[in-house]
Amino acid sequence: MRFSRLPAGLRLYFEPAPLAALFLGISSGFGFAMIGATLTTRLAQHGITKSAVTAFALTFLAYNFKFLWAPIVDHVRLPVIGRFGQRRSWLWFVGVLVMAAVSFLGFADPASELYLVAIAAIMVGVAGATFDIIIDAYRIELLEPRQLGAGSGMSQYGWRIGSAAAGALALVLAARVGWSAAYVACALFALPAMLIGALMGEPPRHREPARARGLGEAVVAYFSPLVEFLRRQGALVVLAFVLIHKIGDTLANLTLRLLFQDLGFTNDEVAFYDIAIGFVALLVGVFVGGILYARLGMKRSVFISLVLMAVSNLSFAGLAAAGHTNVGMAAAVGFENFASGIGGVTVVAYLSALCNLRFTATQYALLSALASIAGRFLTGTTAGALINAMGYVNFYLLTTLIAFPGVIVFWFMMRSGLADLSIGSAGRDGAS
Q1: What is the CATH number of the domain that holds 141?
Q2: Which of 19, 119, 263, 352 has the largest CB neighbor count within 10 A?
Q3: The whole model's pTM is what?
Q4: Domain that holds residue 308
C-alpha cells in the first residue's frame, strides 16, 4: 500500500520502524496493567484493605530499579540464541519469562494466599521491567532521529492498546471464567514484541559496547553509561527534572481504581469509561502530540504537555466531589488520557533522544525509572493513608500542586539551553 500522498508528518507513522514501535508498545503495556489497575481491582473485590492494596504499588519498584541490571542486557550475550543478535535474543528470552510470571500471578489466590500474590506480583514486576529494558532499547535503536517523535507516539499507542486491551480482557474474563484463566489469556500479549524481533531483525543502529575483560573492566563497563551521562553539561539538572516531573501524575493514576471502587462503579462501567473512553481520548492526545511535536519542536511541545498533565489531576478532584456519575467519569478520564497522550509523544521522545547509542538499554532504563520512582514510592507508602486522612478531593488537589515543580524546572532548562545540550547520540543524525 502506498502512503506517498499523505502529508510528510503522517507518512512517518506508516514507515516500518514506527509501525514496529506500535507492536513493541503493546507488549510493554500489558505487564504493567497486570500488576497495576487489574490487580488493584482484583484485590479490592476480595475485600483487601486500602493500605494493603496501595502497598502493592511497591511491586512497581522493579521498574524504578531496572537500571541496576540493565547493563547486563547491554553487555551479556545469551548462549545459543545469542547468535541471533544481542537485542533479539534478550527480547525472546525475557518474553517467555513474562508469560510464565503473569500466568503464575493468575493462579495465586488473594483470599487465602496474599503473600503468594505479593511474590508473584514481584516476579511479574521484575520480568516486566526487564522486558521494558530490552523493548525500549530495541525501539530507540530501530528508529532514526527523524522518527523519534512518530515512534514515541506509536509506542504510546501500543502501550495503551496493550494496557487497555489486557485490562479490559482481564475484567471481562474474570467475571465469566475466573481470574486465573483471565491472567493466562493476557499472558499472550507478550507475543507481539517477540514477533517484531523475528520480522525486523537486529536494529541497524545498535552499537556494541566494549566487551569487558576481567573484573576491573567489568566494573568500569557497568558504570560507564552513568559516567557518560553525568559528564554532560547540566546533567544533574536534567536528572532532577526526570525525577520529579511525573510525581503528581503517578500519585493520581495509581489510586484511580480505588476511587472508582469507592464511588460504586461496576467492572463493566470501569471497562467502558476508564478503559474504552480513556483509550479513545489517548489516541486523540497522541495525534495532537505528534502535531505539536512536528510544528513546535521538542522543547515547546514538552513544556505544553507538562502543563496539561499537571492540570489534568484537577478532573479527578472534580469527579470525587461529584460522586458516581458516568458523565463525570468520562470527562475526567478523557481529559487525563488526552493530556497523557500528548506527553507520551513529547516526553518519551525527549527521554529517548537523551540516550547514547552505546548504552541505550542502560541509559533509557535509568531515565524511565527515575521518571516515576518518587511517585510510586509515595503511592505505596503514603497514598492510602493520605486518602483516608484528607479525602479524595483534597488528595487530587495535592497531586496537582506536586506536579508543577517539574514544569518550572523544564522551563529553566529551556531558558538556559540545557534542554538542547543534554541530547545524546540517539537524538542526533550521524552520531556513532
Answers
A1: 1.20.1250.20
A2: 352
A3: 0.77
A4: 16-427
